[in-house]
Structure formats: C-alpha cells, structure tokens
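Blinded run. Sample ID left blank on purpose so nobody reads anything into the name before looking at the predicted structure. Input follows.
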Amino acid sequence: MRARLPLVLLVASCLAVAAAYAAAFRPDGAPSWAAWCIALGSGGMLSSTMALGATRRGRLRPVAVIACVLTFLVVSGAFGAALWMPPAEGADARLLLGLPLRTAIVLYGVGIVPLLFLPLVYAVSFDADTLNDDDIERVRRAAAERKA
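Blinded prediction complete.
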C-alpha cells in the first residue's frame, strides 16, 4: 500500500468528524448521521495515522495493513454497535463485566481490544520496521546536507 492512501483516508476522516461537529450547531440539534460520522471518522483517523507512522520507504507492509484495517473495524465497530443498539440503560440493564452493555462495548472495544493485537503486530514486524544502520546513516547525511 502506498503512503498516499492513508493520507487521503486521514483527511476524509477528519472531514467526517468536522462535519459531525459542525452539524451539532444546527438549531434543531445534530442529525443521526453526525454520530455515525464521529464513529467512522474516529476509527479512520486512528488507523490512518497508524498507517502513516508505519509507512517505510513509501510502502506499508502487509502485516501493518492488517493491523490498521483491524483497528478501524474494531474501533468504528464498537462505536457503531453502541449507536445501533436501542437505549436500554436503567436499573435492570444488562451488564457486561460490570458495565452497562453499551458502555462496555465502547470501553472494551476502543480501549482494550486494540491493546491485545497491536503489540503482537509490532513484535512480528519489529526487525523489518525499525531503523537499521543504513537508515540512520542516511538520516545523518541528510541532516549534514541540510546544515551545509
């Protein structure tokens, strides 16, 4: 995957979130699509920023693509599931690990589940994605040329 696609997705995600925030200022309140823009835009911003950070020499390794897509699906899916569910909080609401169901889906889906697979992906791709001696020398040469 080329580095241009994550940048385009980042801009699109930011625009979706901005549209949702702008819609909140409508006199009749935010429409229902605004919440979905936040759900998809926040997952898109996170995963596209990850992709930009993992891009090396203009390319994104397949394991990084899988991690970014999985992150998007989990984060946006958790927000989307909470939006899709009918409101049923109350004294007799269903609990998941001690939290109301919608809260648990967002908290665990956005905060916990990515913590389970992202370190594994990082460990698998560490040697290929970290700077080697040639990369460090190239950065030093570029810095020296810039100073001159």
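Unblinding after everyone has recorded impressions. The longest strand covers residues 95-96.
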